[in-house]
């Protein structure tokens, strides 16, 4: 046991440039995907929280269900869409970091949208009448409510980041786990496990957890500071 | 009654959750007046304000509201998690930035919160939050100010500031509709009183007459049920 631990630590401290490149790619892909998820998910969630139209309840239910989208299925669908004979085949995205970003963004967007819908709906209870009474247009009302719940949306962003960076099924299918190009932390861990190099797989796992912790701690510190300033 | 009322509700009915809240309500509010709407809990006072503001659509009847620029101060101030200044600026989207900043500064001064503009509004005390909500209403420059129990839970100092600004706005020509259970406040501010009971206007007339010699049994019952009060300054 101690020997295994020593081996893991040794591998951890001797991580070479390839591993750092894998970590950087994972971070880059996941952060970009979360960014896209926020840009698409926040307006969608706010719209569903504020707008009233027939079928809205079903749309919210569908969105909530999409939070649990199976990554492998997302990967498969994107594979079909991006493959040479697929509708977006000419873009040549399959087996590129771009395809992995698209896959993770597809997983992150419903999560962000559903959490946004919930917190904006709560904000609407105490702010809705006042904002309408001030004569704000519907988009400005939604904007004010999004601003009001911005600290809660940080949690949505972190949840989306956690889902994206820890995901393997979709990135494996559309990225192909190509060494030095589309290999991420999760696909590398999977590969090393299959090869039987468990100490390296565990060392990579620790790096992955470290990345997630650093991002979460940084965001938590920023959020606490902002909450202290703005209440 | 004014020949050209600012607000006219005719035969307005409204049910919420299967309960009749407004029951063939008729009322007229004169332009430039300060009208207090009083009555027991559940009489339909707050709902009437919301119907006037267009926040609730009645099931039947007609609602005519002349003034276009309206402001509504709710019993519980609804403020966003931002600075006090940003909360006021929220209502001034159409103004150029320098004019908006000047208006915000003046609004804060009106409610004696000049030093608190950069502070988080949600960290204000209840009284300060309500003063801020009123400052935001003032900043809009409304022709019609709707107040739903604006000083409930406020201390006398904050109440005095709120009433002072409402009086100033009324003197400047703003039509004010005030819902309040504070009959001293009604006596201080209102020139006209409407008594609501079970969604109907059971009495409507000069404040002094209704407060001191109500004519209907519903008005008498409501006023008799209140705790003793003494108007500081009788309404003129």
Automatic annotation (TrEMBL), chain A:
Compartments where found: Cell membrane
Record membrane topology: Multi-pass membrane protein
PROSITE patterns per the UniProt record, alphabetical: ABC_TM1
InterPro entries registered for this protein in UniProt: ABC_perm_TupB-like (IPR049783), MetI-like (IPR000515), MetI-like_sf (IPR035906)
Domain spans labelled ABC transmembrane type-1: 23-219
Coiled-coil regions listed in the entry: none
Keywords: Membrane, Transmembrane, Transmembrane helix
Transmembrane annotation, as ranges: 20-50, 62-82, 94-115, 153-178, 198-222
Predominant place of localization: membrane
The organism's place on the tree of life at top rank: Bacteria
Protein name: ABC transporter permease
Annotated organism of origin: Methylobacterium longum
Biological classification of the source: Bacteria, Pseudomonadati, Pseudomonadota, Alphaproteobacteria, Hyphomicrobiales
TrEMBL record, chain B:
InterPro entries: AAA+_ATPase (IPR003593), ABC_transporter-like_ATP-bd (IPR003439), ABC_transporter-like_CS (IPR017871), Molybdenum_import_ModC (IPR050334), P-loop_NTPase (IPR027417)
Coiled coil: none
Record carries keyword Nucleotide-binding: yes
Keywords for the protein's UniProt record, in alphabetical order: ATP-binding, Nucleotide-binding
One Pfam family cited in the UniProt record for this chain: ABC_tran
Gene3D superfamilies referenced in this protein's UniProt entry, alphabetically: P-loop containing nucleotide triphosphate hydrolases (3.40.50.300)
Segments forming domain ABC transporter: 7-223
GO MF term set: ATP binding
PANTHER family: ABC TRANSPORTER I FAMILY MEMBER 10 (PTHR43514)
Family affiliation: Belongs to the ABC transporter superfamily.
Name of the protein in question: ATP-binding cassette domain-containing protein
